[in-house]
Amino acid sequence: MESYLCCFPMNERGQVAYEIDKRRGRYTNICASDDSDTENDDVDHLANELAQKATIAAQRGESYADINEDSKEMVTINPGHGIEPFEQKRILDAISDCANGNKRAVKDYLETSSEAQLFIRGRDHDSKTTLISAASEPSSEMVSLLLKYGADVNAVDNGGRSALMEAALFGWAENVKVLLQNGADKHIRDSENRLAVDFARDYYKNRTERYRRTRGSVTSPLNPRLGYTEDTFRRDIDRQEIVRLLSGENRKSEIVFGTPPTLSLSESYSFTPSPMQGSLLLRGPIEEYPISSSSKTVARLERGGKFPSIGAMSGWSHSSVQSLRVDGRQWTDDVLYISEVVDHVLASHSCDQGKDGQYNACHAEKQLIAYFIDRHVFLPRDLELNSKLEERIDSVEDELHEFLSGTEIGHKEKLIGKHDEIKALNLELKSVETALNQLVASPQARPLLKLESQLNILNQQLDRHTGLMDMASAPPPVSLTEAVILVSSPPYQDCRVFKDKVNARFGLSIQLFAAL
């Protein structure tokens, strides 16, 4: 059996630079970029992804003319220089002219050839149309010409890739503009659930694909890009414009504006001599925290190094925002659980709203202590099977079985799904798969997709919890144990007692300070 050596970001002084990501069952290096955007636990998102894949598969099952196999028009080529004349398909020259941006030659072909519509509507072995391939080239005039002669602006290939996606990937802003002017749908998703705008973003996956396709072997006669060298500087500028064209207001909403301190605010800043000789300290405001009422307490967790500062506000009805990263509901519930673990009794209060101890659990200091524990300490429940999750999986499985047994679409899927009986009949199997994909892509199947997506998510969560149990059973030799929590008012005595019990139970050194 192979063995692996795990190198955690820690040094000989016991300092660490990692967190525990319990939701995904892994450790996270805080100094490395996090690519977690590829994971999504949203049921609607996954249902849409399944439906999109089924739609692409259904389209793939449709009958399209093969631009190579179905072409019959021949021309005689006389190269001269003693070489015998030979015949070849006329459409091959048109494909080459299209790739090279020779608009006049392609226009002449379209006006004179009996196979003009095959050239416009036909597909290659990857199901690419000439428009999809032309969109990855620098000629917007060629794109306009193909659209003028009836090219389907929203056609997709076997991977769900449209012309708009190809233009975005290679950074041809003018092609994108022409396609949008002719009705290109920027909301189409490919088989990996990516939008056209995603191909224009500076992602490693996009850079890798461009490198592979421009320096690798040519596999498609509709996409001859061997020898192409990208002007990365200009193309990146165009890709930034493409992002603006395709994302619209959604892109603007991510922009955060600010202004420098006014004269009155500048008075909040001051330089003071540092305890270290030969330097000055600049003191001033660090963060502004929104509060729902003047009675609210705000606290800030500081862990040093490159660990981000985390803000919290007392209460349980608010969700996380930019400066207050802690969700009141989630972490109040965690405080209730941790109180049981450390044998801390949360006193009842008239504001508990039906959950005993809730009011005293929702203090900002306690929420941040729970946050720290979640990121740096394994709790008893991390070593135990999640019975509630298993019960939820059983419940969804029962609901899915009931849906398949009691609805028309369920009966159809059961009939269509008998692949074992028709494996030897390839044509019939293809027909059945096409029917199944069309069925799954229909609006009537959305409840089924949501149930399947929910079951998929729950099983993923169960797998992650199993991984978390393995992590908790063999923790790293060193973890972060020290932190400071700054509080906007004197900490409650109950919070101090809770903090002391947590420190004693888990071997931590969390300190509370009133920053007044």
From TrEMBL:
<dbReference type="GO" id="GO:0042981">
    <property type="term" value="P:regulation of apoptotic process"/>
</dbReference>
<dbReference type="Pfam" id="PF24120">
    <property type="entry name" value="SsdA_C"/>
</dbReference>
<dbReference type="InterPro" id="IPR002110">
    <property type="entry name" value="Ankyrin_rpt"/>
</dbReference>
<feature type="repeat" description="ANK">
    <location>
        <begin position="159"/>
        <end position="191"/>
    </location>
</feature>
<protein>
    <recommendedName>
        <fullName>Single-strand DNA deaminase toxin A-like C-terminal domain-containing protein</fullName>
    </recommendedName>
</protein>
<dbReference type="Pfam" id="PF12796">
    <property type="entry name" value="Ank_2"/>
</dbReference>
<feature type="coiled-coil region">
    <location>
        <begin position="386"/>
        <end position="468"/>
    </location>
</feature>
<feature type="repeat" description="ANK">
    <location>
        <begin position="126"/>
        <end position="158"/>
    </location>
</feature>
<feature type="domain" description="Single-strand DNA deaminase toxin A-like C-terminal">
    <location>
        <begin position="312"/>
        <end position="369"/>
    </location>
</feature>
<dbReference type="InterPro" id="IPR036770">
    <property type="entry name" value="Ankyrin_rpt-contain_sf"/>
</dbReference>
<keyword id="KW-0175">Coiled coil</keyword>
<keyword id="KW-0040">ANK repeat</keyword>
<dbReference type="GO" id="GO:0005634">
    <property type="term" value="C:nucleus"/>
</dbReference>
<dbReference type="InterPro" id="IPR057517">
    <property type="entry name" value="SsdA-like_C"/>
</dbReference>
